[in-house]
Amino acid sequence: MTTAAQTTAPTEAPKGPVIELLPLGQNLARVVLTISNQGSLARFQQEVGTLGQQFARIQQLQQRIQSALTTVERDALTKVGESEVKDFNEKDALFAKVWSFSIPALANRQTALVNTALRLMAVISEEEAVKARASKDFKEEQIVIRGDRRLLQTAEIRGLEFVVQFEQFVKVLQARRDAFLQLTELLKRATTDEQKKSIQTQLDQATELLDKGNKEMAESVGYSLTHNYEIEVLEAKFVFLLNQEEVNQVQNLFANSQQQQAAAATLDAPKVEKRLTEKKN
Q: How many domains is the chain built from?
């Protein structure tokens, strides 16, 4: 038996704007803006900080106008407020053209600038630079001269999950170093053999943990507590945290999508089975 060829209708692309969400600890955040240029990032941070402060001043001024005790005071504050609002609106309009959102739109939201890609640059000596250049995999652009400092690129870390892991482990490593230094000082001040023995045991354990962590970080991303570093942000995302109602909406949309996919798979299964049966016949 022969069967006519069946064409599968192309899957429609999702309608509407694509919304990017990021998990931040126990919270869920919506991405407003992604910046992958260091100059643009510095400009954005300056502008959002300056305009945010100006908008806060306007809100405080409006409260003072409402609580003014005399007409003279209210009129004076209103005049100042009108001038401030006009200046802010002009600047905010320019800001919105560049960054695609306005400051008042997120005034009452909890926002954050989240790093999603980093470049690690170790401060090295001339001897270390010579050693690095001797490596067969070395590329000259890995070494950057800034003033009187030589910087060696040791790694690029990309992806929110990996950036968070790196930042957390750096904190752990620094805490281990602090514990090592504190125990070293305590050992110097110990007066009895019993104290010295107890502290030495703790110091040995702290040293082992510190050396282990330092070795792991050095091997994975070239980060070591023996060097100072400059960390360059290659990409950052400006986000606002969703409230519980918005989180519930996202969860419901996801659940509905899963149900629709499951239902579609169930409907397609008999068709596939039928085509296979006809082919055998």
A: 2
Same domain, 55 and 92: yes
State which of 88, 108, 128 marks the end of a domain.
108
Sheet strand arrangement including 27-35 = 21-24, 27-35, 229-241, 111-124, 149-158, 143-146
Measure Cα distances from 118 to 15, 156, 180 in Å. 33, 6, 28
Q: Are strands 149-158 and 27-35 parallel, antiparallel or unpaired?
A: unpaired
| Contact (Cβ atoms closer than 8 angstroms) between residue 7 and residue 276 | no
Tokens standing for residue 149: 């400092």
Q: For residues 213 and 218, what is the distance between their CA atoms, to the nearest angstrom?
A: 9
Q: What is the pTM of this model?
A: 0.75
CA distance 258 to 245: 20
From 225, 174, 181, 173, select the one nearest 203 (Cα to Cα). 181
Read off the tokens for 40.
Answer: 């643009």
User: In this model, does residue 269 exceed pLDDT 90?
Assistant: no
Instruction: State residue 21 phi and psi, 5-degree precision.
Output: -115, 145
